[in-house]
TrEMBL record:
InterPro entries: RNA_ligase_dom_REL/Rnl2. Residues 182-369 form the RNA ligase domain. Pfam families: PHA02142, RNA_ligase. It comes from Neoarthrinium moseri. This is RNA ligase domain-containing protein. It comes from the Eukaryota.
Amino acid sequence: MGRKLVTVRRIGAIKPIEGADRIEIAVIDGWTCIVKKGQFVVDGLAVFFEIDSFLPGTDARWAFLEKNFIDWNGQRGFRIKSMKMRGHMSQGLLEPLEDFPEIIGVIKDLEAAHGRSEAEKIVRGLSFEEPLGVQKWEKMYNTWDGGEKKENVPLPAFIQRTDQERCQNLPDLFDEWKDEVFQETTKMDGSSMTAYFLRSDSDKTTSLPEVDSSVPQTALLHNGRFGVCSRQVDLGEQDKNGRYFWEVAKQLDLANKLSRLDRNIAIQGELCGSSIQSNFEGFPVGIHDFFLFSVYDIDKQKYTRPKEAEAMARKLGIKHVHVEGYFRLGDIATDIQGLLERAEGKGLHGKKREGIVLKHVDGGFTFKAISNSYLLKHGE
């Protein structure tokens, strides 16, 4: 399921900010937003725009943000980021429901069909980024092949894109999962990388882009096809922006190692190094590496258990992201704030870490807690 960027939320609390006459804090599930004083009331419904929502500048409702518009993906608009005001975190944008007739229309239709109480339950499970033209802001990369620009080839449809829900979006987390055991790992700040292998007899090979077989290609193996991807793009071996992805894949001999498994599989992890994401993890110059965090069974279309992923890293002779341990969720924290506090800590080389990831022992449910100090440092 894709991330829900625009949702209808009920306001849980309104808190004053000492010394502030015009602003206050609205609490929405696990998020806090700084808002105009008196604009919202406790238990009222509002529209919440999550961090990294990109609001289109063509919508007049965002004119008040125009001085902070940016150009992204051929468009002009506003990117929502974490910020700190008067010593308080503001994470997201909260707007009055009455300003969005598109959403009010959906609510009225639902009320007519299901009644008011059930309509609210349904609408709070919906996401409204599409009708509002809101997109998820992500760094954009051009892909180059042999010196010429070309269209990006998307991540293969048979592989699930790496994405975890933030703990703040899981209001019932502790009610439902507090007695369950999770693997806790350190979240690393790099680029998401996927390496996959498809056997020759897989019917999914026909969905892959053609490879020029007239020159040696790591992707072409005797028993199948190997590929390397960023979070969104299947990178060709000659793609300029795939340079470090392919260099590390070759350095670790991933093509031959996955080929020897002789199964349809994808391994996913974090590509980190001196040339990746401003080297937040503090690698020496010229050093890059891959840290596995999950294994995706292409035939079963599901992730393996965390323990199996750890075993796979050992079998392939590659690194796994640091495992803090396996814990009952209720022993890690008792609420969302506790998880956010636990997310603070040191990373691989002693620098402040991005946060933590928790995966249920059966591999079917995972979420993340991102360090607030990390978000502020990176403007996210």
